[in-house]
């Protein structure tokens, strides 16, 4: 179908006007950093000028700062199929991975191996390896090929850490089947939802998930370095120990006890003082996302991916691109990736022409499909720009081959 006709039928199109979108830019990197909601700046300005500037420390009570992690967590819970009181917004994804690993190990005593797939997002793997080193290798971190993860679970596997939507390829794992199979072998499962929440339907309760983590700055549009979140199924909350026993995770933090007593429920997964400005920005993005119909979001995402793939097909033949995502759109998250030996300079040449995707080593061009603010016309124009960059050889310039710190 013609992109203009698809845009005319787009039920999500009104959301586009609620984001700051730089003129002349086609932004296909919302799976790395979401765009700025127009409501965020006024919210932060009010918080800084009134709540902080005028009410000062009183805003912990009168402005509800102290409850922000649980309040925002409950809102995120509705986006990932969790119940109220099972998600708390706090810390970074990396810190939350560490807490979830420790909690899962404590909830599955007698087992000491943590298992994941090779090529999982680095922070997940690094946290596993760090925990192995911290425990003097009493805990073992093990990586296997993605297709063999379930077969690799043995009698010592305490927890399996997996990403629902793979960051490089966009491949979607079956959360229900994978969780059931791992639990049947006696392992608990941690799901990384960083590329899921706000992008595809996720149902932690329906999958009987044990733990999950995610970030707030991709499809939730919480801003650079936005707080992450952690989910713990209610059945684990009062027995699992997340290891980082911080002040805000205490049962009564303002009793100032010398001895740590974990808070009941999800609050024990808090650590230090909540980052209020970051949580306020995240809450705006989450509130906006909650207004959207996830079925419509997913339907548009799939349609955009199909349009992108269809228009890229001639370029695959002509210029050597290879689809790095699953061919079946139902098996892709809200992104599409292609492999090419010159992926990095091609991405830089595209950015110079106003089409912003990103590069993932060693050879992947990654394009995020963000249904709330990306149009079908932009998808078509982006692929036309890729064709022009390749046909003209515009990528083959020295300045496009110099690696920046962030790719």
UniProtKB/TrEMBL annotation:
Cited NCBIfam families: kynureninase
Superkingdom of source: Bacteria
Function, in words: Catalyzes the cleavage of L-kynurenine (L-Kyn) and L-3-hydroxykynurenine (L-3OHKyn) into anthranilic acid (AA) and 3-hydroxyanthranilic acid (3-OHAA), respectively.
Origin species: Tsuneonella litorea
Modified residues (N6-(pyridoxal phosphate)lysine): 218
Similarity-based family: Belongs to the kynureninase family.
Top-level EC class: hydrolase
GO molecular function: kynureninase activity; pyridoxal phosphate binding
A Pfam family of this chain: KYNU_C
Name listed for the protein in its UniProt record: Kynureninase
Pathway involvement of the protein, from the record: Cofactor biosynthesis; NAD(+) biosynthesis; quinolinate from L-kynurenine: step 2/3; Amino-acid degradation; L-kynurenine degradation; L-alanine and anthranilate from L-kynurenine: step 1/1
Gene Ontology terms describing biological process: anthranilate metabolic process; L-kynurenine catabolic process; L-tryptophan catabolic process to kynurenine; NAD+ biosynthetic process; quinolinate biosynthetic process
Record key words, sorted: Hydrolase, Pyridine nucleotide biosynthesis, Pyridoxal phosphate
Assigned GO CC terms: cytoplasm
Catalytic activity: 3-hydroxy-L-kynurenine + H2O = 3-hydroxyanthranilate + L-alanine + H(+); L-kynurenine + H2O = anthranilate + L-alanine + H(+)
Positions of pyridoxal 5'-phosphate binding: 93-94, 121-124, 163, 192, 195, 217, 247, 273
EC number: 3.7.1.3
Cofactor(s) required for function per UniProt: pyridoxal 5'-phosphate
């Amino acid at each position: 179908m013609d992109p203009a006709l698809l845009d005319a039928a787009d039920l999500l199109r009104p959301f586009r006007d609620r984001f700051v979108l730089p003129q002349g830019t086609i932004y296909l990197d919302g799976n790395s950093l979401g765009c700025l909601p127009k409501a965020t700046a006024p919210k932060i300005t009010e918080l800084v000028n009134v709540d902080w500037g005028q009410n000062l420390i009183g805003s912990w009570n009168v402005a509800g700062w102290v409850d922000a992690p649980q309040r925002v967590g409950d809102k995120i819970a509705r986006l990932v199929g969790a119940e109220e009181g099972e998600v708390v917004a706090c810390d970074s994804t990396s810190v939350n991975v560490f807490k979830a690993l420790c909690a899962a190990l404590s909830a599955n005593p007698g087992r000491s191996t943590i298992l994941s797939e090779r090529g999982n997002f680095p922070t997940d793997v690094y946290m596993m390896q760090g925990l192995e080193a911290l425990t003097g290798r009493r805990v073992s971190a093990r990586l296997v090929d993605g297709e063999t993860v379930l077969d690799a679970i043995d009698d010592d596997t305490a927890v399996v850490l997996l990403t629902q939507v793979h960051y490089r390829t966009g491949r979607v794992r079956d959360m229900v089947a994978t969780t059931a199979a791992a639990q049947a072998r006696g392992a608990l499962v941690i799901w990384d939802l960083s590329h899921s929440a706000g992008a595809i339907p996720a149902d932690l309760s329906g999958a009987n998930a044990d733990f999950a983590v995610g970030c707030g700055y991709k499809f939730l549009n919480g801003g650079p370095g936005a707080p992450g979140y952690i989910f713990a199924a209610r059945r684990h909350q009062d027995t699992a120990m997340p290891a980082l026993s911080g002040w805000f995770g205490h049962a009564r933090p303002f009793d100032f006890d010398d001895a740590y007593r974990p808070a009941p429920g999800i609050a024990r997964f808090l650590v230090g003082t909540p980052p209020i400005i970051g949580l306020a920005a995240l809450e705006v993005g989450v509130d906006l996302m909650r207004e959207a119909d996830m079925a419509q979001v997913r339907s548009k995402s799939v349609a955009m991916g199909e349009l992108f793939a269809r228009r890229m097909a001639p370029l695959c033949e002509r210029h050597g691109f290879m689809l790095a995502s699953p061919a079946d759109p139902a098996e892709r998250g809200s992104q599409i990736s292609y492999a090419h030996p010159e992926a990095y300079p091609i991405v830089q040449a595209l950015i110079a022409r106003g089409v912003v995707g990103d590069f993932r080593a060693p050879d992947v061009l990654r394009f995020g499909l963000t249904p709330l603010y990306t149009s079908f016309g932009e998808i078509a124009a982006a692929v036309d720009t890729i064709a022009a960059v390749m046909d003209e050889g515009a990528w083959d310039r020295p300045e496009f081959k110099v690696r920046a710190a962030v790719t």
